[in-house]
Recover the amino acids of this structure.
């Protein structure tokens, strides 16, 4: 396939590149074999030999890399935007656990919801997604198949939870949970055998829901399994005030320490939220190579703190964006980009006013402690930043030779 048009990407944080009138040659496996200006001899030759393979991007439109959603609860697509007046732990009892249990009990409902979810992700330009599922193995395989059939790069997490405030929605023991997730991981990987050689669309992710629903035995077992099978890990960490206080009361430590001593704070791990991590803790996360899924909208509902995004980036933490359906009510990563900018601007405003109050003089935002981000940095987080957080190398999230051609086309403003 040969594509000609304007391309826009952010290969680095804060760096926007506009590639006007470029030609991209995509090979059979979906990788970019060639990219260059349409006026070069090589590009002209490829166009001349395209024999109907050439796709023209409409004038006024451009291609962007597809978005990466680093945090989405697939079964909660059932009720997105509901009950957001409640604190996190109560919201889970009132809505999340019930919806997940309902989907686990009804395979046809699961297929219907997950098929619609895949359709909506494509409509909103999401090409890679890190998914929380449910506790039932078969339901998560339905989720993986729906994503694979839609052509979405999906990282699917079968929930592991041997502690629950809802007795009917729990795994029998840590041992039973570990057996089930190991089986799911093998079956999920095997789904890729149905695809062309060298192609991978779905991967399993070990998913302890969060510390309050997992015993120490289960967390330690998941850490060993992650290392043994080289599996990715996802969870929630330092998310909300009531959750943080629960862990302190029950475990006597911060939940970051619980994850670390369990072998789950690794370069293969993505932790959602992390709003209660201070800069030294963020520096420690960076040293471990763990990534953060920043979900600004759900943080506004469930956390008493905004995520320290600028401090995380300054400390070298890998950060991407998440919608956090259903704690967030919109599946569009573009909305998460806007919200990330807005929250950071409010944090910067508070910093400026605090500085002015301390010095009794007018403060500015020109020093190195500026906390806001701009739209180009938000675009990076939604594309290349998310790809790196997921461990997708070889240029994913950009337009470059050797990268996967994961692209979406902007809509012409007058269409």
């Amino acid at each position: 396939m040969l594509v000609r048009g304007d391309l826009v990407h952010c290969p680095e944080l804060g760096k926007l590149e506009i590639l006007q009138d470029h030609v991209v040659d995509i090979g059979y496996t979906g990788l970019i074999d060639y990219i260059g200006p349409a006026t070069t001899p090589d590009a002209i030759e490829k166009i001349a030999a395209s024999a109907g393979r050439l796709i023209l991007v409409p004038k006024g439109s451009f291609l962007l890399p597809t978005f990466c959603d680093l945090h989405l609860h697939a079964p909660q697509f059932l009720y997105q935007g509901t009950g957001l007046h409640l604190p996190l732990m109560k919201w889970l009892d009132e809505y999340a656990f019930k919806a997940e249990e309902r989907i686990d009990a009804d395979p046809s409902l699961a297929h219907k919801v997950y098929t619609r979810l895949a359709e909506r992700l494509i409509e909103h330009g999401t090409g890679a997604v890190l998914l929380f599922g449910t506790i039932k193995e078969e339901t998560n395989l339905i989720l993986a198949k729906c994503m694979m059939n839609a052509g979405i790069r999906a990282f699917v997490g079968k929930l592991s939870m041997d502690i629950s405030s809802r007795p009917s929605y729990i795994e029998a023991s840590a041992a039973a949970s570990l057996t089930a997730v190991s089986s799911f991981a093998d079956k999920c990987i095997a789904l890729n055998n149905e695809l062309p050689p060298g192609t991978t669309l779905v991967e399993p992710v070990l998913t302890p829901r969060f510390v309050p629903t997992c015993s120490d035995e289960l967390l330690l077992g998941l850490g060993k399994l992650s290392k043994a099978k080289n599996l990715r890990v996802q969870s929630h960490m330092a998310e909300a005030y009531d959750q943080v206080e629960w862990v302190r009361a029950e475990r006597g430590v911060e939940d970051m320490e619980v994850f670390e001593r369990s072998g789950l704070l690794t370069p293969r791990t993505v932790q959602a939220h992390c709003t209660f991590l201070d800069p030294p803790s963020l520096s420690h996360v960076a040293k471990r190579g763990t990534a953060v899924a920043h979900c600004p909208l759900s943080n506004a509902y469930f956390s008493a703190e905004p995520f320290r995004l600028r401090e995380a980036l300054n400390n070298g933490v890998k950060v991407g964006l998440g919608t956090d359906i259903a704690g967030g009510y919109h599946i569009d990563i573009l909305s998460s980009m806007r919200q990330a900018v807005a929250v950071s601007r409010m944090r910067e405003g508070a910093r400026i006013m605090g500085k002015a109050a301390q010095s009794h003089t007018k403060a500015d935002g020109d020093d190195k402690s500026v906390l806001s981000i701009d739209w180009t940095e938000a675009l990076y987080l939604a594309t290349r930043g998310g790809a790196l957080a997921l461990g997708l190398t070889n240029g994913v999230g950009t337009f470059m030779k050797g990268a996967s051609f994961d692209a979406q086309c902007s809509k012409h403003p007058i269409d």
Observations:
- The mean pLDDT is 93.
- The longest helix spans residues 333-359.
